Amino acid sequence: MINKPSVEQLEKKIPVRFVIVNALAKRSREIAGGARVRIETNEKNPITVAAMEIDSGAVRVVDEPIAEELQEEEIITESESVDE
């Protein structure tokens, strides 16, 4: 369980609770696995650290379908510039 920032506070940045929970789970697994923490903190709990990172903006949460769409646009743009 995280105390600060609360899930309600994170909902101000990410309005869908399901996305928040998935982002926290993914990032906390990365931190527990040894990933570099992107904020200065003495907190040891990976879930709390992940929440703090998301709240501070050190970690961005991108909806996967949107990320795929952006990646496709980049590929199209790159291929158009190669054709010119």
Description:
The protein is built from four helices and no strands. 61% of the residues lie in helices and 0% in strands. It has 84 residues and is mostly helical. The model has no long low-confidence stretch (mean pLDDT 83). It has one domain (7-83): RNA polymerase subunit, RPB6/omega (Eukaryotic RPB6 RNA polymerase subunit, Alpha-Beta Complex), CATH 3.90.940.10. It has helices at residues 7-10, 17-32, 46-56, 64-83. The longest helix is centred in the C-terminal third of the chain and has 20 residues, at 64-83. Helix 2 packs across helix 3 (46-56).
Key words describing this protein structure:
mainly alpha; Eukaryotic RPB6 RNA polymerase subunit; 84 residues; 4 helices; globular; 0% strand
